[in-house]
Write a structure and sequence with these properties.
By secondary structure, the protein is mostly helical. The chain is built from five helices and no strands.
Length: 85
């Protein structure tokens, strides 16, 4: 007789950080002038000073701007918001 766990094999999920999942949104939506996406490492460095709550809020703002005004406006908002002098 087989055990239930051997019959029902649940998929093993990769454990990743929540921050990496949130940064994936920016990697998917931000493009360079030549159309290539920015590297996840560069975006992670730019957002390293923000907490997870701030990144979630920032994503919601970017989604709203993207839906209202388009991709180009969202990119301008992103780069303007994280600019550090």
């Amino acid at each position: 007789m087989e055990s239930i766990s051997s019959i029902i094999k649940l998929p093993v999920k990769k454990k990743g950080s929540e921050r990496a999942e949130l940064i994936k949104f920016f990697v998917d939506n931000l493009k360079q002038k030549n159309g290539k996406p920015f590297s996840a490492r560069m975006i992670a460095i730019k957002l390293s000073h923000l907490s997870l709550e701030d990144i979630r809020y920032f994503i919601s703002m970017c989604k709203d701007i993207k839906n209202r005004r388009g991709q180009e406006a969202m990119q301008k908002y992103f780069w303007f918001s994280i600019k550090i002098n």
